[in-house]
Amino acid sequence: MLDLKNITAGYERGRPVVREVSLAVAPGEAVGLLGPSGCGKSTLARVAALLHRPDNGTVTLDGALVTEWRHRAPRAQRTTVGVVFQSPRLAADPRLRLREIVAEPLRATGRQIEVRERVDELADLVGLGGDLLNRRPHEVSDGQLQRACLARALVLRPRLLVCDEMTAMLDASTTAALVAAVERYRRETTASLLAVGHDRTLLERWCDRASEWTELSG
Fold first, then answer.
1. What is the distance between the alpha carbons of residues 100 and 162, in angstroms, rounded to a whole number?
2. Are 156 and 82 a contacting pair, CB within 8 Å?
């Protein structure tokens, strides 16, 4: 489903934060990527989610070589991947209600007709009950907002989900609920998962296998 080969990437020319890293995720597989803060895990996750162009190396997604990133990537590739970041406050527009946040990808891809049914379906999956969908980010907790961000990542039915420290800022009960929601989605769709984090216990329980960052670095 995902094949990263010899990825070198960074944000300043000549100063890579990821050097010669390779990682593969098979169809339907859940892979955990373990490593300390600052080692480059999030940069690799952004490359995998087609949000950051690597300086060197290749990315193959669902059998097709990736040649463009972000909005330049073909829609078919962009919608294959869903991504959830560590901080929901930085990932959500504070002006929008949670219902609008979840629906953003549908509207962006011209699928407005699906908004009501799909948003309500995902609200049930991630546990956004009551009037939470009608609230704005400042009116909900971090955990509730992260539930909305997870629903947004799933709204286009991606076949690969990238979770970059998705539960790092959350309590144990919310973490368990979000992991359960991801696993329910994966059971229903056979989607693959790349979960990035530093909690060994969580990733080893959640994923089919967990790789250490030091094992990947060239």
1. 21
2. yes
- pLDDT tens over the chain, length 218 residues: 999 999 999 998 888 999 999 999 999 999 999 988 888 999 999 999 999 999 999 999 999 999 999 999 999 999 999 999 999 999 999 999 999 999 999 998 888 888 889 999 999 999 998 899 999 999 999 999 999 999 999 999 999 999 999 999 899 999 999 999 999 999 999 999 999 999 999 999 999 999 888 777 65
Task: Give the Cβ contact number of residue 204 at 10 Å.
Answer: 12
Instruction: Name the strands in the sheet holding 56-61, side by side, starting at the edge strand that comes first in the sequence.
Output: 16-25, 2-10, 56-61, 64-65
Place of tokens 């991504």: 83
Which pTM value belongs to this model? 0.94
Strands (E), 16-156: 16-25, 30-34, 56-61, 64-65, 81-84
For residue 146, give Cα distances in angstroms to 37, 167, 214: 20, 8, 29
Fold of 2-216: Rossmann fold (3.40.50)
